């Protein structure tokens, strides 16, 4: 997915705004249209919190009834300096990219694309498609040592699971409680899909050096005593060794965490770089048809890059 803020590029990252201990910071979503028929709730970047570890972008969408709609239709667009994570609870997404990948991603399967120095891709609901579409799209910022790597795409239909009483978890990326995802990571981080039965409680083991956030996908849950409704995200800070969870109704959560990202990054449109000059060059390369390859098979035109702003870049930290 794409269409990040198209205003001035902003600098994010660095450890200075990472709380040294646990917090309970509720992040309000911002609704934004994506393509012709999909409305998403954007949780990261947020005015109150811009990164969680290397996680730098989180969209939650659905459940949407798309029986009589085209569903997700995101034309070919470019990326640099990041990984995209496609995660579904309902429906399917057909992924195409400039490497020649053609893959349908289904619920609880990992679609992981590493853009590295440059890739383009499209995402769409297959034809025909399921009635309901519900999921999340997430980005992971690549560190300096890996951000110019060759692009790649991975699909993992089977992922490790954890269970404890009324809790079930699927490890999307990283490791939790001895279960390790096969997905490639470049910084210490974790992403876990959690489901809880109504009335169940659990104590989730955490890494005290990580910062964490929890996104409620559906149902009604309490995380560290804070009641969360679908589409809301709770930032938890760092310094935790466990996290208390309680299900007020059947529910599901995404746990996202990682070591605070050391580097400052510049985000604009679909690009993550380290300077405005890098972003300008990436935009020029996409406009001129170089660097990003071509996505074959998508029925439609590729996205045009928006106009770069004339205002200076505004440095910002992880928060504020």
Automatic annotation (TrEMBL):
Domain Pirin N-terminal: 44-140
Region annotation (Disordered) ranges: 1-22, 297-320
Record-listed Fe cation binding positions: 77, 79, 121, 123
Cofactor requirement: Fe cation
Pfam families linked: Pirin, Pirin_C
Cofactor binding summary note: Binds 1 Fe cation per subunit.
Sequence ranges assigned to domain Pirin C-terminal in this UniProt record: 192-292
UniProt keywords, alphabetically: Iron, Metal-binding
Recorded superkingdom: Bacteria
InterPro entries, per the entry: Pirin, Pirin_C_dom, Pirin_N_dom, RmlC-like_jellyroll, RmlC_Cupin_sf
One term of GO molecular function: metal ion binding
Family designation: Belongs to the pirin family.
PANTHER family to which the protein is assigned, alphabetical: PIRIN (PTHR13903:SF8), PIRIN-RELATED (PTHR13903)
Name under which the protein is recorded: Pirin
């Amino acid at each position: 997915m794409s269409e990040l803020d198209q205003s001035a590029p902003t600098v994010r990252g660095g450890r200075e705004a990472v709380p040294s201990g646990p917090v309970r910071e509720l992040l309000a979503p911002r609704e934004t249209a994506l393509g012709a028929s999909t409305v998403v709730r954007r949780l990261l970047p947020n005015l109150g919190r811009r990164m969680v570890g290397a996680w730098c972008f989180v969209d939650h969408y659905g459940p949407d009834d798309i029986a009589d709609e085209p569903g997700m239709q995101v034309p070919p667009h470019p990326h640099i300096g990041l990984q995209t994570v496609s995660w579904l609870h309902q429906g399917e997404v057909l992924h195409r990219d400039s490497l020649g990948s053609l893959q349908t991603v289904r619920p609880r399967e990992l679609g992981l694309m590493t853009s590295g120095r440059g890739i383009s891709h499209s995402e769409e609901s297959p034809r025909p498609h399921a009635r309901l579409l519900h999921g999340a799209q997430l980005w992971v910022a690549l560190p300096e040592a890996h951000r110019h790597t060759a692009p790649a795409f991975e699909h993992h239909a089977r992922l490790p699971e954890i269970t404890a009483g009324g809790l079930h978890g699927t490890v999307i990326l990283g490791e939790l409680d001895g279960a390790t995802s096969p997905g490639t990571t470049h910084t210490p981080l974790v992403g876990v899909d959690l489901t809880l039965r109504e009335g169940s409680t659990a104590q989730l083991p955490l890494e005290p050096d990580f910062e964490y956030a929890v996104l409620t996908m559906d149902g009604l849950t309490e995380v560290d005593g804070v009641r969360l409704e679908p589409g809301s995200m709770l930032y938890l800070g760092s310094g935790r060794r466990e996290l208390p969870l309680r299900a007020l109704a059947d529910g599901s959560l995404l746990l996202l965490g990682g070591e605070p990202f050391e580097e400052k990054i510049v985000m604009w449109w679909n690009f993550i770089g380290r300077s405005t000059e890098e972003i300008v060059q990436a935009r020029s390369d996409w406009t001129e048809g170089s660097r990003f390859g071509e996505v074959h098979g998508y029925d439609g035109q590729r996205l045009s890059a928006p106009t770069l702003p004339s205002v200076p870049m505004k440095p910002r930290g992880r928060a504020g």
